[in-house]
């Protein structure tokens, strides 16, 4: 009888402790798989920036954010958010391709989108990120320098096509490539002006993955990228072994004219536009 | 060519001239079954007692050997290589761990330890599993509870070509209730020289083999036997391949329980459990020009067992064998980029494939009378393949997106033959049908470079079973002085598995011509005809001849690869008391019917001369068998149709083999 009482007490204690943890579990779930990049503060709010890796880098970045009210210490659930990254160069300033910021589905306090930094910072040139948001009709804003170092492998390329237009191509997936047929996703943007980089429609990105360290061999059954309903470009990338792969690219417009990039032959071992994957 | 015609004419005349003589003489076949008493060792009867088992096996009309170097040749039965044949050691299934077939099962038994090599053609060989071409079962020496006590032998050999050294021992102990047989052999050879004194680089090898078998009889008709083989080869050169072998290691173990019922109908019931583990490591570090350094290790582990019962009922002699094995084959490839900061390039070339087979084999020989017998066998088996590695499965799915993790096949076979013997003549006619599953390489291989046709091969998990319909017939005659036999076999193989070029896929191996994916021809045909004739010229002088002719083509009448051209051996053997001597000529005709699609070229004909002589010195129980000989006397530079990438074979060689036994 005594033991039974002890057991039931112990069980109670366990359940009690579980329920008291509940609030925190929600918060933890909100940030599943995310690591904080940095906080940006103004008088009223703290904006927390998150990504899977916890850092930003040259190329495509999937970014999540939360807005914490400084007075209530609560996270804002009904904000309207937009952002504007800006590169501060010696001679000029320009933006980059980026998405709208939307409420993350299935989450309470998170907002997300992506930014494609087509160049990295250097000693004299840097990126800043301005975030505009409104809560219950009141507009707020923060603006802060962000750190965008060069990526170890090439994940973004910008060039002028044969049509005279400047394009930015960014590799979005695979983020963790495998020896398998991988889903490959890219963003294809054109530079309308220094501040606008809209997605181009109905183009094709041809891919030819190669291993330069091993006789530049390729892989079979790749599928070129075409535009999906999310406006990004999707295809299939076969990687037959681990190691360093160069994904040679060709950009074709909606009437299948090559705008940039070369086909790989015995003499042309690499295209002028490419991405790199190493695993 | 003239030489060849001359031989045929000689052969035929001898057949005709002696065909009238009557009387019976037992045909000496390759199978030598030794049962009781002190071992009359098989190797001691060979022209070169300590030769390799490969050299011994290719004396059979049914067998040729694909050679990639000086050691570990691949046996080919009825012009069919490893995938289509079945090689077992005392009924045990063993699978090589090398994706390039550098470790055939035959390399794990030493000739000094071999009592019998049971070569069966086509569907007669399905006792231990499915086969198309035939089977070889290697059996080791056994003291078998004879009252011989301790005895032993010391083997030593030397060959001038390649500075080839052989040393070995055999120590046996046998009593009525217990026996222990051990055998040890060490072989070490440098590069050999082809004809004209040309050294063949990377043809060296070094290996040792230990074998032990021990039996205990706890009851009059019940015995248990444990056996082990440990074979280790290091530093084996493969001049025909781009890589050598730094390690080929095999551990082969078994435990057998045998029951010899005194019952009227059942004669013998044996049950065996076995386990073997093969490790194979390829090595390119000693090669001068390596475009990229790589490691290619492979592993093959097999658990298995069988239970076999033999009996008689009235005029029936029957046998049943229930057998099963579980094999795990895995091979990897790791390539080292020249930039040390780059990640290693890794892939599974065999994606950890598990094969689970269970089959039942039934056989009956019915004797109508003393002249006529009908032999019938049938088998059915379930063959399951599973890709255990998720990494490996996803790799294969690059080529075949719908590959399932596991596939199941039912393999069936049946054969019947009718034998008739009367007045020195014997006739045999047989029919057979059999199926086989694709091998691990054919089903799941991933970028396996074939240095013969220089293509990277990709396995195809969707292959159908290969199906063979065969016909065979033989006609023999023997009397006191003469014996002769003509045997022919024809195989019609449907869904014949070969590699076919995929022009859209790029090769992986540097220097490869492209990708071949395993696929099936609608059918292929293989025809073999062999003639043996032996004539006792004098009491002490015997003349032995072998002629073999083969044809192989696919459904477009194009040649198949590795089909032997016309080949012949003619031997004069002299035996007087303890002295024996032999002189032989051995040759191949030109290989006109070659298969360029599979990397073959027109190999010229050749003929070589060999001689040897030996004497057995006896002093009470001790025996010294010394044998000396010269091979390729004229130092001819040649290569055969079965020499991988035309590597030349050994030039002139003088050997001395000495066995001292107590």
Automatic annotation (TrEMBL), chain A:
<feature type="signal peptide">
    <location>
        <begin position="1"/>
        <end position="22"/>
    </location>
</feature>
<keyword id="KW-0732">Signal</keyword>
<protein>
    <recommendedName>
        <fullName>YtkA-like protein</fullName>
    </recommendedName>
</protein>
Automatic annotation (TrEMBL), chain B:
<protein>
    <submittedName>
        <fullName>Iron complex outermembrane receptor protein</fullName>
    </submittedName>
</protein>
<dbReference type="InterPro" id="IPR037066">
    <property type="entry name" value="Plug_dom_sf"/>
</dbReference>
<keyword id="KW-0472">Membrane</keyword>
<keyword id="KW-0675">Receptor</keyword>
<keyword id="KW-0998">Cell outer membrane</keyword>
<dbReference type="GO" id="GO:0009279">
    <property type="term" value="C:cell outer membrane"/>
</dbReference>
<keyword id="KW-0732">Signal</keyword>
<feature type="signal peptide">
    <location>
        <begin position="1"/>
        <end position="19"/>
    </location>
</feature>
<dbReference type="InterPro" id="IPR036942">
    <property type="entry name" value="Beta-barrel_TonB_sf"/>
</dbReference>
């Amino acid at each position: 009888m005594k033991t039974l009482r002890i057991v039931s007490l112990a069980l109670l204690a366990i359940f009690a402790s579980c329920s008291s943890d509940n609030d925190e579990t929600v918060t933890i779930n909100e940030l599943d798989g995310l690591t904080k990049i940095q906080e940006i503060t103004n008088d009223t709010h703290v904006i927390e920036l998150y990504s899977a890796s916890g850092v930003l880098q040259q190329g495509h970045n999937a970014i999540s954010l939360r807005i914490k009210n400084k007075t209530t210490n609560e996270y804002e659930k009904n904000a309207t958010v937009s952002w504007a990254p800006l590169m501060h160069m010696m001679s000029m300033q320009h933006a980059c391709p980026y998405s709208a910021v939307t409420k993350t589905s299935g989450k309470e306090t998170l907002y997300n989108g992506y930014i494609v930094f087509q160049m990295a910072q250097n000693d004299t040139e840097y990126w800043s990120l301005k975030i505009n948001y409104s809560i219950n009709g009141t507009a707020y804003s923060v603006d802060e320098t962000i750190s965008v170092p060069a990526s170890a492998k090439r994940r973004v390329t910008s060039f002028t096509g044969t049509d005279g237009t400047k394009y930015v191509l960014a590799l979005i997936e695979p983020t963790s490539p495998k020896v398998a047929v991988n889903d490959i996703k890219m963003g294809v943007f054109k530079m309308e002006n220094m501040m606008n980089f809209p997605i181009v429609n109905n183009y094709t990105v041809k891919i030819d993955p190669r291993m330069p360290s091993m006789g530049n061999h390729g892989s079979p059954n790749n599928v070129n990228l075409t535009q999906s309903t999310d406006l990004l470009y999707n295809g299939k990338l076969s990687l037959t072994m681990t190691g360093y792969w160069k994904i040679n690219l060709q950009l074709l417009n909606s009437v299948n004219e090559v705008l940039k990039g070369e086909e790989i032959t015995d003499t042309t071992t690499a295209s002028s536009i490419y991405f790199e994957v190493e695993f | 060519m003239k030489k060849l015609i001359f031989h045929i004419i000689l052969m035929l005349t001898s057949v005709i001239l002696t065909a009238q003589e009557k009387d019976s003489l037992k045909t000496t076949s390759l199978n030598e079954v030794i049962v009781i008493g002190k071992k009359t060792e098989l190797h001691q009867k060979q022209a070169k007692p300590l030769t390799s088992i490969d050299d011994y096996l290719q004396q059979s009309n049914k067998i040729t050997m694909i050679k990639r170097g000086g050691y570990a040749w691949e046996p080919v039965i009825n012009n069919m290589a490893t995938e289509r044949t079945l090689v077992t050691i005392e009924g045990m299934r063993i699978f090589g761990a090398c994706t390039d077939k550098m470790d055939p099962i035959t390399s794990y038994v030493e000739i000094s330890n071999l009592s019998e090599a049971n070569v069966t053609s086509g569907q007669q060989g399905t006792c231990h599993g499915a086969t198309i071409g035939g089977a070889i079962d290697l059996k080791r020496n056994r003291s078998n509870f004879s009252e011989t006590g301790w005895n032993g032998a010391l083997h030593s050999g030397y060959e001038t070509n390649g500075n080839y050294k052989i040393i070995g021992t055999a120590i046996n102990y046998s009593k009525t209730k217990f026996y222990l047989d051990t055998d040890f052999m060490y072989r070490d050879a440098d590069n050999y020289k082809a004809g004209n004194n040309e050294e063949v680089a990377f043809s060296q090898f070094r290996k040792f083999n230990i074998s032990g078998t021990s039996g205990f009889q706890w009851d009059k008709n019940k015995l248990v036997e444990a056996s082990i083989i440990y074979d280790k080869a290091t530093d084996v050169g493969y001049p025909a391949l781009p890589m050598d072998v730094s390690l080929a290691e095999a551990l082969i173990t078994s435990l057998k329980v045998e029951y010899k019922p005194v019952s009227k109908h059942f004669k013998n019931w044996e049950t065996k459990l076995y386990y073997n583990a093969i490790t194979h490591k390829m090595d390119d570090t000693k090669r001068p020009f390596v475009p990229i350094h790589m490691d290619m290790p492979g592993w093959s582990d097999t658990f298995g067992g069988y239970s076999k019962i033999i009996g008689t009922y009235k005029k029936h002699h029957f046998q049943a064998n229930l057998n099963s094995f579980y094999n795990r084959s895995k091979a990897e490839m790791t390539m080292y980029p020249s930039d040390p900061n780059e990640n290693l390039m890794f892939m599974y070339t065999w994606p950890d494939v598990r094969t689970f087979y269970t089959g039942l084999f039934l056989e009956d020989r019915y004797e109508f009378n003393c002249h006529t017998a009908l032999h019938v066998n049938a088998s059915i088996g379930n063959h399951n393949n599973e890709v255990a590695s998720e990494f490996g499965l996803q790799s294969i799915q690059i080529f075949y997106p719908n590959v399932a993790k596991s596939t199941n096949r039912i393999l069936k076979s049946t054969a019947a033959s009718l034998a008739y013997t009367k007045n020195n003549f014997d006739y045999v006619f047989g029919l057979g049908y059999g199926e086989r599953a694709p091998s691990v390489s054919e089903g799941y291989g991933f970028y396996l470079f074939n240095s013969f046709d220089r293509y990277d091969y990709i396995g195809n998990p969707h292959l159908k079973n290969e199906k063979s319909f065969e016909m065979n017939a033989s006609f023999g005659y023997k009397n006191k002085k003469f014996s002769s036999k003509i045997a022919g076999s024809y195989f019609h193989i449907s869904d014949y598995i070969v590699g076919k070029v995929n022009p859209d896929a790029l090769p992986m191996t540097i220097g490869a011509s492209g990708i071949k994916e395993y696929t099936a021809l609608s059918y292929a045909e293989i025809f073999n005809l062999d003639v043996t004739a032996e004539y006792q010229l004098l009491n002490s002088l015997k003349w032995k001849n072998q002629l073999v002719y083969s044809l192989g083509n696919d459904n477009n009448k194009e040649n198949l690869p590795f089909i032997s051209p016309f080949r012949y051996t003619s031997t004069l053997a002299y035996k007087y008391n303890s002295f024996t001597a032999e002189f032989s000529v051995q040759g191949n005709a030109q290989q006109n019917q070659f298969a360029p699609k599979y990397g073959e070229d027109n190999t010229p004909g050749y003929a070589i001369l060999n001689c040897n002589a030996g004497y057995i010195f006896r002093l009470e129980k001790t025996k010294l068998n010394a044998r000396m000989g010269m091979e390729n006397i004229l130092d001819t530079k040649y290569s055969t149709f079965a020499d991988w990438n035309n590597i030349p074979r050994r030039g002139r060689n003088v050997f001395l083999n000495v066995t001292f036994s107590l």
